Amino acid sequence: MLKNHGINANVDERLGLLRSWMVIGPFEDENYTGFARVFPPEKERNLSASYPGKSGPVSWKKAISSASDGRIDLLQSIGNVEGAVGYAFCEFESPKICNGSLLAGADDNLAVWFNGERVISQGSYHGHLRSDWYQTPVRIRSGVNSLLVKVCQAPPKPDKGPGSPNKWEFVVRITDEQGVGPTMIPRTQTTQPPKGR
Questions:
Q1: From CA 30, how far away is CA 59, in angstroms rounded?
Q2: Is 25 in contact with 151 (CB distance < 8 Å)?
Q3: How far apart are CA 60 and CA 56, in angstroms?
């Protein structure tokens, strides 16, 4: 519609969508205990590291969303598993300090660290993703900002019907005080980003 009027709007920039991530997993989530457990990505962010996972060693790899709403499909980027924990990490640069909001949703649950501070911690296992379901204020730094996301995939249910689709996904966006995506320059992921839980 805007293009018909000669306006080229970048929807991702306008909404503050974060599409490019590094992901790692799966880690074990037996009997719904994974959300409370602290796995290595919460202790350090060494993107060249490998750790013991649910069924063997796991390491970081790229995941880029092509979905219209920017969601990352962890079944596709990590693996089609149940009873699992996955992490995602990204960095961006901001030219200035500003107050903003972090908006996110996930299937099944969600924890988010922004610049090392845990700003979202929702351990309930939900059946589907709702964009912007969780919202929290954040202080955007001048320079490099980082996000770490943790999402669990529920263990298999004994009464699960045949053909019931699995989903394991999340979406995160950041807006400024006017509700518009701030200037965010995607940053090439480093091997030793700032530590912090």
A1: 20
A2: no
A3: 14
Q: How far is it, in rounded angstroms, from Cα 139 to Cα 115?
A: 9
Tokens of 175: 């807006």
pLDDT grade for 197, boundaries at 50, 70 and 90: very low
SS3 assignment, position 76: helix
pTM of the predicted model as reported, rounded to 2 decimal places: 0.87
Q: How far is CA 145 from CA 1, 10, 148, 178, 179, in A?
A: 33, 21, 11, 20, 19
Beta bridge partners of 21: 63
Token couple for 192: 């030793």
Residue 149's Cα: distance from chain center in Å? Answer: 4
The neighbouring-strand residues paired with 104 are 134, 172
Residue with tokens 């394991």: 168
Please state the rounded mean pLDDT for residues 134-163. Answer: 86
Q: What is the pLDDT of residue 142?
A: 94
Domains plus CATH for the chain?
3-156+166-186 (2.60.120)
Cis before 26 (ω within 30): yes
pLDDT tens for each residue of 23-77: 999 999 999 999 999 999 999 989 999 999 999 999 999 999 999 889 999 999 9
For tokens 């099944």, what's the residue? 108
Average pLDDT of the chain to the nearest whole number: 86
Quick one: pLDDT at residue 40? 97
